[in-house]
Amino acid sequence: MKLLTLNFLTCAIKTCKTNSASFPLHPRDAELEIVEADVNLPFLKNILPRLMWDELRGICTELGLPELPATPPTPADLIQPSSSTPETTDAAPIAEADEEPSQTAKDLHRVLLETCIQEGKLVCGACEHEYAVKEGVANFLLPGHLV
Amino acid sequence: MLPTPSTCHVCFDRVYEPAEDSYLLLDTLSSGSETAFLQDRFGDATSSPPVVLEVGVGSGVVLAFVAANARTIFGRHDVLTLGTDINSFACKAAAQTVRHAVNEREDGRSVFADVVNGDLASAIRPRSIDMFVFNPPYVPAELPDLSRHETYNTMPEGKKATSFEQDSYLLELSYAGGADGMVVTNRMLAQIPGILSADRGIAYVLLCAQNKPDIVKQRIREWGPGWMAETVGSSGKKAGWEKLVIVRIWRSLK
Ligand SMILES: C[S@@+](CC[C@H](N)C(=O)[O-])C[C@H]1O[C@@H](n2cnc3c(N)ncnc32)[C@H](O)[C@@H]1O
Ligand SMILES: [Zn+2]
After folding, report:
1. Could you give the count of Cα atoms lying within 13 Å of B87 in the half-sphere of its Cβ?
2. Whose alpha carbon is nearest atom 4 of ligand 1?
3. Fold (topology level) of A3-80+99-142
4. Of A69, B62, B97, B189, which one is least surrounded by beta carbons within 10 A?
5. Best of B15, B42, B48, B98 to mutate (most A CBs within 10 Å, chain A)
């Protein structure tokens, strides 16, 4: 499962919902795999406000991945500054389709969409329940008595 | 007519095969009136990407259709799709269906997150979903005995195939809805206000005539001020108990 997915998941136990420690879930004993994909700049720019940035940074640290910047990048940070010569600056703005991803965009893309947990556990910070990840699929089913 | 995603790799002995209910969802979500509604709500290309959750993805045909036709349905490509199913075999099959459809039709511009194995939306972060879709087990029939779930949810140890009993159990999960066919749907309806984003969340839930759709809609409208529930699709051609409707649930923004 992709690290981006962790942005939308929490502990499945009802009584944890009101406990802020139940988000994010913490990967443990994770085997990571990189699944390459094309950088999707329009998506990255638009998803920024929906990312829980501090939590995402924490997950990267826990997984021993390169550190993310302390504050979320702006959409402009994700675009490679144009290498065009001065004469072209007052021409029409570059069409969206021609924008190139900056290194920041590529790094974010790698973390969110290419870094996948193949095996391991996701642990709730509130109740410490462990959810298994097997063959890339996280299992949030609870034994009957916990539901 | 938009193409139906390919599900030819799915083993329908233990994963729900796309049927009239699945196709009604595809037709409704791509109908002129629904695409107009959704584009009005989500079409602004500078707003954040709509996050779509389908619970009970089965083969993945519905989620794949939404992901692969993001542009037609939402008026934008950057839609994020996420799924859950109680059946782990369905989770894997659906992930493959969505990935394939996105690559083929959207050239990777719409983004598929994952399908997780879980009970309804119990593991979804509160207020994080913009569009929710559910084709539930809606047939009035006794619910299967869930105490066998853990054993039946994985390939038997050391075997390459599932047993007949296992397959029957997994298929029962896909259609049996308990009393009035509403036991699973009622549990899901109770979770909807909690998972939808406050400003633009919207849900589509399929019901059959025996679920008593008019009563269900009335109950939703009583959730609180602004909650709306309307039938926005139906397969009324056939009489009888499997007459199906799609109910759109949302909060009026005014
Ligand atoms: C009628 S099938 C729909 C499948 C697919 N969405 C379609 O439209 O073809 C219902 C699906 O819900 C799943 N399901 C049943 N109970 C569930 C639960 N408690 N949590 C998550 N999924 C569930 C079943 O495994 C099945 O895949
Ligand atoms: Zn917990």
Report:
1. 28
2. B58
3. N-terminal domain of TfIIb (2.20.25)
4. A69
5. B48
pLDDT 10s digits, A106-144: 999 999 999 999 999 999 999 999 999 999 999 999 987
Handedness of CA B37, B43, B44, B46 (dihedral sign): positive
Of A12, A113, A135, the CB nearest to B119: A12
Decide whether any atom of ligand 1 lies within 6 Å of the B119 Cβ. Answer: yes
All structural domains of chain B: 23-44+52-251 (3.40.50.150)
Q: What are the pLDDT digits (tens) for B3-54?
A: 999 999 999 999 999 999 999 999 999 999 999 999 999 999 889 999 999 9
Domain assignments of chain A as residue spans, ordered by start: 3-80+99-142
**Does residue A85 carry a pLDDT above 50?**
no
Measure the CA angle with vertex A105, ends A99 and A108; round to 5°. Answer: 155
Min CA distance, A147 vs chain B (Å)?
9
Contacts of A143 in chain B (CB under 8 A): 150
Give the ligand whose atoms come closest to the C-alpha of residue B12: 1
